[in-house]
Amino acid sequence: MSDKKNTFYVTAPIYYPSGDPHLGHAYCSIAADVIARYKRLLGFDVMLLTGTDEHGQKIENMANKEGVIPEEYVDGMSQKFKDLWKVLDISYDKFIRTTDSYHKESVGKIFTKLYEKGDIYKSYYKGLYCEPCEAFFTKTKAKVDCLCPDCGRELKYTEEEAYFFKLSKYADKILKLYEENPLFVRPASCFNEMKKFVEAGLEDICVSRTTFSWGVKVPFDKKHVVYVWIDALSNYITALGYENAKSKEELSNFYKFWPADVHFVGKEIMRFHAIIWVAILIALDLPLPKCIFGHGWLLFKDGTKMSKSKGNVISPLDLINKYAVSADAVRYFLLREFPFGNDGNFSFDSFVNRINSDLANDLGNLVSRTTSMILKYKSDGVLNLENLLLGIDEKELISTVSKAKNTYQNLLDSFKFSESLSAIWSVVLQANRYIEKVTPWKLYSSKNIEKLDTVLYILCELIRCVAVLLIPFIPTTSEKIFSQIGISSKGLKTFSSAKVYDSENLVKYKICREKEILFPRIDLKSVD
Ligand code: MSP
Description:
single chain, Isoleucyl-tRNA Synthetase, Domain 1, about 525 residues, 2 domains, about 45% helix, elongated, 16 strands, alpha/beta, Rossmann fold, six-stranded parallel sheet, about 15% strand, binds 5'-O-[(L-methionyl)-sulphamoyl]adenosine, four-stranded antiparallel sheet
């Protein structure tokens, strides 16, 4: 593998297009996007992958229900995911569909490789099957009354010829990996759960089906289709050209980005990633991803999960339209409100409160007060200083910015989104307090112009630094802020430029007269 120092590969799950994308799906994609944008900000060559997981019985059934062929069904549905990611500014580098021919070609080859190695063998499956989850369960794992341990629905007894993957063979290697690298599975709650699960012993798993045909055919036994997880999990490497590249150049992407730096997944699919995917990679002699992070679920107050099978999903587009908010507001809310590894209770009240208080009041006001003052006190809106008059308050603010920046970086490096936003807000809140304390309007009326200029300059610098650090979270807003304070130079939007420049190297600000309100307050009376 190549030197990976300057590359970063982050993946979001590939979603089942068996229903419209909802806020729960958006949550993980936004998190992955924030990390991708953050790493780009730090100068990494980033690859962000997402897509749709289009095979399987559920999809075949959905297509039948709608009276269309599966191809037509998945074409329409996967487009809906792409459309939503566009609205939400998900800057993916590649969108993979498991029906893409290059992916199917690789899956066939991977399956054959594992078979030839003796890690896949043919046998007979007799047992309990959950159709909605597309998963088999042993009697001991199913509840007494034959209900699916994952979704609680009825399991059906099924008997069929199937291929099996020798998962049991890899239990010791997986445990050793966990022992050597406790940060491989995060957060710790997921790590402990996975460890316990493997310690209890692993059974071989069924990896082919004959009861439906919508999937990748097993190349040497066409009656079978590759059962969902080998097909789905392989997307992380097939997207890079593994077993489908037509030239060395095409395969260079694989050497450049694999192993992945982080797979973001919901906690219920952690087992497939931290156990099955790991075993498949070991069997293929491939390096393992550096980290698998399992995030929590968006729940409602009564503890039910937001999910399409429960029919209680919230559409991000509805939120944006009904509350007349920007995609940035939704991105901010999701990552600020819910600490990433935990479940979070979604409520419309918390949505409105977050936006009104953090975005409209704290950040929005800081920018609008500062720019209004400059426009009022400087007829041309230009702040072009030669010198700074730094007092104790200013020095304190400058040190708050640099501390917050370090904290933000450490926290984002360990995927603590909410906490890293808090670190930025410590600057925003202190800047607002600073305005109250130094009362620039009094400096103006007492003609203390040198001090006034310093105060306004420091405020512009803080705002610029905050806007830089917020690029990963609310990219459109950061750009709006830059243009409101007249920053167009790329060099002043970089991570390293996020510091307050001193008298040696002053930045010139020119405030734009046409000001758009960054985050209008949501007036609940006007929401239907
Ligand atoms: N297709 C598989 C993933 C294969 S990855 C190789 C799948 N698809 S899914 O559409 O059912 O779910 C995709 C992701 O959405 C999962 O990570 C899941 O946790 C996430 N979410 C679905 N509902 C969610 C919430 N209510 N809250 C947070 N995330 C949730 O599983």
